[in-house]
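Thread: Newbie trying to understand structure tokens

Hi all, I'm a second-year student working on a class project, and my supervisor (Dr. K.) asked me to get a predicted structure for one chain before our next meeting. I've only ever worked with sequences, so writing a 3D structure as a token string is new to me. If someone could post the tokens and maybe explain what I'm looking at, I'd be very grateful. Here's the chain:
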Amino acid sequence: MLAEPHDQVGILVLEDESSTMDLVVHYLEGASRDARISTAECLGAALGCLAEQRIDLIIADLHLPDSRGLDTLDALCRAGEQLIIVLTGDEDPSLRAGALQRGAYDFLHKSQLNAATLGRLVRLAELQARTRQSLRASQARLNAIIEAEPECVKLLDADGNLLEMNPAGLRMIEADSIEPVRGHCVLDLVEARHRQAFRDLTREVAGGRPGRLQFEIVGLKGTRRWLETHAVPFADPVSGKPLVLGVTRDITEGKRLELRSERLARMYAALSASNEAMLRAVNAPALLASVCRASVDNGGFLAAAVMLAEGTGAIRLAAASGQLEGYLRRLDVSVDPDRAEGRGLVGEAFRTGRPAIANEYYGDPRTRPWHESSRAAGLAGAAAFPLVTDAGTIGVLLFYSAEANAFDAEMTALLSRIAENAGFALELLARETQRLHEERLVALEHSVTRSLAEAAAVADALRSVMRAVCEAGGWDLGRYFRHDERAGRMRFAEHWCAEPDLEKFSGAWSARKSSAFMMGICSGCPTRCRSHGPAGSDDQSSSGSGTTSICSGPNPSEWETGVPSRSRQDFSTQAPPHSSIS
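---
Reply by user tm_fold:
Sure, no problem. This is what the structure looks like when written as tokens:
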């Protein structure tokens, strides 16, 4: 129980002579009516009394059956903070100085013992004892308040070393008690990106300026928390050294809501930006690149990527943006469930058609194949979303986050909308591409028909047809080969050139009219382009049938003279239009 100022003063009389003890007790009873008086005849009994009850003042003889001289005083001082009045009959002149030096409140020789002298000393000691009681009570209340304070109260030196911390603070940093962490620098607990700001705050406060700071810590057991500290200058009462007194509260939940709101705002901006980019995209590569770029620039992700399926189990990077673009281009990913690389987030999202989320990247077994290679990338979470068109799942939209638990339900729903919109836009682009292709074929058919109808000779007809085909496809050069059925060879017959600079090759081609080529390979062309039989068929029964060969890559003008072609398109994914004339 805490002592209050009006409590009785506890006095212990330690004396082995019964007559002296009775006299001292008699004097005390007359001097102090509120005193609670206990007695002991040896040091052992006195120490037992001190352990069992509160004693404020000890009147002690130094020469006892179990202790002699100043050793008795030392033992009593070690037992507590009680005031001690030494009462002795020893005539040694150095004893008084030694007793006062070792902590005695006063010194009284037995020859001076009387009611007035003892009463005066006792009243002064009682006053000081009551003052100590009051201070101890106040200190105890203050300690109890600090101990019960739900926020962290800590005392640091100017270098950030921990001197004191209440239980609430110890719980925040996940320490079982103050002893293992006292004297250690708290900067080691502060998350790296906030460490310099915390160091600056500590120095400024130690220099006399109060301050505040929000920062993230990683506790001794690995838990991350956001804290807000208010720090003020504090002078050490003993040494006067400048210290830092801080009151810190846990703002983790509020900070998470704040960061979540910021992320959602960014993602709505990313959704809007990606939708606008989809409307402006003229082809699939541009569309996918714009979706990735908008997600990184507005969504705050480390990286965003699109991976498209290629054959059984294979998937390739089609577009990427962000800090980890280089890492993504080296990434070994599959959608084959028989491979470990195919059982990750990308493979799961592709096969199931549902989002695959890893909010704790290095704690998720699905991401284990990439743990080692991604350590330096700074990622903490990842999410994969299927890209779906009318043809089914064609690929995956992948996001990397620097924050754990970034992909909550609302964030997942927003990213799913981006993936759905991207799939829909790809489908629209494919339809538009098909429509334009069909329109071009119809226009080509009309142009060829008109050219044939207006031609005065077969050679004119051939050149007109090749011109129509080349202009429709944006090509520079067309050649016609006739089928020599008897020799089983294709022989060069006519050509058409887009640019006047290419006409100088006319004589060269004419000189090669006697050249024969194997069916299917245009061996006379530096581009090694493919030739097509009549109507794409292997039927060669018609005498005089032939084929046009359209050069879409580096053509003779580039090969021999360096004249650039009009078109650098790669038509490897679609067969060039061709016409067969008998």
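A couple of things are worth pointing out once you decode it. The chain has four domains: 10-146, 149-250, 259-431, 455-561. The domain at 259-431 is CATH 3.30.450.40 (Beta-Lactamase). Feel free to ask follow-ups in this thread.
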